[in-house]
Prior knowledge:
Radius of gyration: 21 Å
Number of helices: 13
Number of domains: 2
CATH superfamily of the largest domain: Vaccinia Virus protein VP39
Strand order of the largest sheet: 3-2-1-4-5-9-8
Structural class: alpha/beta
CATH topology of the largest domain: Rossmann fold
Amino acid sequence: MVTPKTGNNPSPHISVLYQEVLEALQIKAGGLYADLTLGAGGHAKGILDANSPDGKLIGLDVDPQALAIARKVLNNFGERANIIQASYLTLEDQLKYLSWKKLDGITLDLGASSMQFDTAKRGFSFSHDGPLDMRFDPRNDLTAEMIVNNWGKQQIADILFQYGEERRSRKIADEIIANRPITSTKQLAELIKSVIGDQKSKIHPATRSFQALRIAVNDELESVKQILHTSIKCLAPGGRLAVISFHSLEDRIVKNIFRDASKPVRDSADPMNRIIREPIVKLITKKPIVPTEKNIKENPRARSAKLRVVEKCAD
């Protein structure tokens, strides 16, 4: 194993739990790794520094804005860095194309990035007025504006309740229908605030609803379930999967899938209750790794991050 280099994160956008991810992966020289949410390339650069001199990495992201930055950050690594604009759901196809059989480590940083939140035209944040877009991949057809202005009241209420855990979902849906068309983030945020009112909480009244719309636009939760199973499948024995989540719905999915994969499966129809499948992974983090005060100071977005790690068992 190569110890990751310490010091300041080299990415222009500070990666959440940067050092913790690199340590959790137990990066080895010459290993093959994947950053499935490449972003600006912070974690990827750390991995490529640590698996030198001939280790390789595949970095996937659907966001062209992030990829443009990542290519500059990782330019010096040459052919060791394989940067591709593609969904992480294409992982198996990408490995086949590269003729890579199994990976020694995979990292996933779920949800929207700080860069996406800070770019008004992407429509992820109510802190900046912009169009109601919220797409990770600009090539996709569905936007938040289409949901807000075209979907039925019950569909909108269900999204806000299920994905945002918003208790006032029905009332917000009523107001959305009554005030169509809604075309900007500020317009929607103010409408939601008028329903919920000012709160003592530090969280803006529109936070849960914006989260819900983003998840719906990008079909995030189903995609997370799929890529977790695929990632475990693509790991070599001893390889590690490190996943960062930012809200309870994501973390619950990660926790449950990791827990289930770490237990043997028994034949319920067998009187002896014999094992028919041994554990696929070993839990490295019984409880999630959470940010330190230093992490949060460097990147306020890190405050809700949770890192969970598993290691692939022998075949």
